[in-house]
Design brief:
This protein has ten helices and 24 strands. By secondary structure, the protein is an alpha+beta fold. It starts with 8 loop residues before the first strand and ends in a 9-residue tail after the last helix.
Length: 426
């Protein structure tokens, strides 16, 4: 859909705004919105940064309980997250409440439509400039002095209201399409997991005789399969032996961040010394092709495989080394098992009541797994690689559609809020 431009434009005098409609004013944000600073601890409808969805301004309910004083706000006020402003968290309140945390809480002056003001803040150019002004490297924040000094377009009030209504309508359509793609992705993920789960617990032959596994949540497995603890089939080695020394240039060190995908990824890995690597070798802990590296801390359950052509690397204390007892066993098959509900279910039971996500090596060794003959492991793995590829292709297409829709959304807001399109008759 294309929209007309305004009949006449003028130079705004602001580089990022460029030409604006001739009858529009250009003002500093602080002349349209005033900063609220009144503290309150009334705890009525508290809103924190985690409650606001970036770029849409939607409210996300959470169960977090907040302490301390916040800034009181009323319906129509705007809460803009000053911490990491690139997250574009701008919320328009529909009732009174309390802003908890890093917010600039703003109230529109007379003649300013709060919905229009929210869309101005969600303008991608506005966000980019504010983000470039931040101070503090670890917790970058935008000051009110800078945000309030930003120049913004200010159409007549009836036009602000019309633009806001137009954007409400158009962004709602786009959001509905995004939600549809997100539901598709969730369905694909669910089906993907179901295919993996069935393949690693029932095999590929629907006519195969089954037997009880003896484990309620696992159910029946093919009669010729084995079932037992992981340590019967794979060696599980603790990597918590010596504390690694970090250096600028040395041997890459794989920890929980490096096991987020199918293969070990050392692109952003820290480095350790040659001495530390030699200690691994002496303890027979150096990673070899076909080994799996399993996270036992924080991101518990993540796993990645060492590829045949992988450069040498060491391992941190937050992972364990899994090595098969026979070269005939399939590393791919075990990876699929670990990524399936077979292990996910056991991890969930171990984590009940735990506030700190960590499991010890002995618990990993006792994971119960189904274990088909080696040739069948290879066939199941090949089948799953093909099937998963299909699901991943469809999911990637859905994600591309979402990305395009979100780009369309931000572009439409930017164009309408700065007068690059005329939506008065839309």
């Amino acid at each position: 859909m294309s929209f007309p431009r305004y009949p006449k434009y003028k130079d705004s005098g602001v580089e990022w705004l460029g030409q604006v409609p001739e009858h529009w004013a250009v003002k500093r944000l602080k002349h349209n919105l005033r900063l609220l600073t009144e503290k309150t601890d009334r705890r009525e409808n508290p809103v924190a940064l985690e409650n606001i969805e970036g770029w849409t301004g939607r409210f996300i309910p959470t169960e977090t309980e907040f302490e301390g004083e916040g800034i009181a706000f009323d319906a129509g006020d705007i809460l803009f997250g000053k911490l990491r402003p690139y997250l574009a968290k701008a919320f328009r309140a529909e009732s009174s409440g309390e802003a908890v945390g890093d917010f600039h809480v703003m109230r529109p002056f007379a003649g300013i439509d709060s919905r229009f003001a929210q869309y101005q803040i969600l303008n991608r150019e506005f966000i980019a400039i504010v983000d470039g002004s931040t101070f503090g490297s670890k917790m970058p924040r935008a000051s009110w002095e800078f945000v309030g000094g930003m120049k913004v377009t200010t159409p007549p009030l009836p036009e602000q209201t019309r633009i806001a209504a137009f954007l409400d309508q158009e962004t709602a359509k786009i959001d509905a399409l995004v939600a549809e793609q997100e539901r598709l992705m969730a369905l694909l993920k669910e089906k993907r997991q179901a295919v993996i789960s069935h393949a690693v617990t029932k095999g590929l032959n629907p006519q195969a005789a089954l037997k009880p596994s003896g484990i309620e949540w696992l159910g029946d497995v093919p009669a010729h399969w084995e079932t037992g603890p992981l340590k019967r089939f794979w060696n599980v080695t603790d990597c918590k032996h010596v504390t690694a020394e970090f250096i600028e240039d040395g041997i890459p060190l794989a920890s929980i961040r490096e096991v987020q995908s199918w293969w070990i990824d050392l692109e952003k890995a820290k480095c350790t010394t040659e001495h530390f690597y030699q200690l691994l070798i002496e303890g027979n802990r150096q990673p070899m092709p076909g080994d799996l590296i399993f996270s036992r801390n924080a991101t518990v359950g993540e796993v990645a495989q060492v590829s045949p052509d992988h450069p040498r690397f060491a391992m941190g204390q937050d992972v364990v080394l899994l090595r098969k007892f026979s070269p005939e066993y399939s590393s791919d098959f075990l990876q699929h098992v670990i990524r399936s509900p077979v292990i996910i279910h056991q991890l969930a039971n171990l984590m009940i009541g735990s506030t700190f996500k960590r499991i010890n090596v002995e618990e990993i060794r006792t994971f119960v797994i189904p274990f088909p003959p080696p040739n069948e492991q290879a066939k199941i793995s090949a089948f799953l690689q093909t099937e998963i590829g299909k699901f991943d292709t469809l999911a990637a297409e859905a994600q591309r559609a979402i990305d395009l829709l979100q780009e369309r959304r931000t572009a439409l807001i930017s164009a309408a809020a700065t007068g690059q399109i005329d939506v008065r008759q839309s």
